[in-house]
TrEMBL record:
<dbReference type="InterPro" id="IPR036019">
    <property type="entry name" value="MscL_channel"/>
</dbReference>
<dbReference type="GO" id="GO:0008381">
    <property type="term" value="F:mechanosensitive monoatomic ion channel activity"/>
</dbReference>
<keyword id="KW-1003">Cell membrane</keyword>
<comment type="similarity">
    <text>Belongs to the MscL family.</text>
</comment>
<keyword id="KW-0812">Transmembrane</keyword>
<feature type="transmembrane region" description="Helical">
    <location>
        <begin position="20"/>
        <end position="50"/>
    </location>
</feature>
<keyword id="KW-1133">Transmembrane helix</keyword>
<keyword id="KW-0813">Transport</keyword>
<dbReference type="InterPro" id="IPR037673">
    <property type="entry name" value="MSC/AndL"/>
</dbReference>
<keyword id="KW-0472">Membrane</keyword>
<protein>
    <recommendedName>
        <fullName>Large-conductance mechanosensitive channel</fullName>
    </recommendedName>
</protein>
<dbReference type="InterPro" id="IPR001185">
    <property type="entry name" value="MS_channel"/>
</dbReference>
<comment type="function">
    <text>Channel that opens in response to stretch forces in the membrane lipid bilayer. May participate in the regulation of osmotic pressure changes within the cell.</text>
</comment>
<keyword id="KW-0407">Ion channel</keyword>
<comment type="subunit">
    <text>Homopentamer.</text>
</comment>
<feature type="transmembrane region" description="Helical">
    <location>
        <begin position="70"/>
        <end position="94"/>
    </location>
</feature>
<dbReference type="Pfam" id="PF01741">
    <property type="entry name" value="MscL"/>
</dbReference>
């Protein structure tokens, strides 16, 4: 039992578990933000463009069985519309973050060097190598690092 508890303690203290816990908490908070943006900002605009149609009231009543059996296809339509909008909002956020990240690292890229590659098999080779360790081809010149050029926006 003591060994089991020690293993559990080691598992909990791993960085991956803590990273996952932080990701879940931040993900929940981010979900609340995105849901609020969709329901409070974007869905009213969609309602204005569709003439105020409320899909959630749309049902197909079934004549079979007792009671008011109905297929609530309007809720499904609402869920699909909200999913597409949420996916689009997340896409815009990720696109903006990637753009900001590329702008922040643009100056750093000019100094970075890429490892040399074999012209025949395109595998990475050590700097100064005269033969490729992967395909054993003789290199035309000793391998030299390639300087990365900054990507143009």
């Amino acid at each position: 039992m003591r060994k089991f508890l020690q293993e559990f303690k080691d598992f909990i203290n791993q960085g991956n578990v803590m990273d996952l816990a932080v990701a879940v908490v931040i993900g929940a908070a981010f979900t609340a933000i995105v849901n609020s943006a969709v329901s409070d900002l974007i869905m009213p605009l969609v309602g204005a463009f569709t003439g105020g149609i409320d899909f959630s009231d749309m049902k197909l009543y079934l004549p079979l069985g007792a009671g008011n059996s109905a297929i609530a296809y309007g809720n499904f339509i609402n869920a699909v519309i909200q999913f597409v909008i949420i996916a689009f909002v997340v896409f815009l956020i990720v696109k903006a973050l990637n753009k900001a990240r590329s702008l922040a690292t643009r100056g750093k890229q000019a100094d970075e060097k890429e490892a040399p590659h074999c012209p025949y098999c395109l595998e990475e080779v050590a700097e100064g190598a005269t033969r490729c360790p992967h395909c054993t081809a003789e290199l035309p010149a000793p391998a030299a690092p390639v300087v990365k050029t900054p990507a143009k926006a």
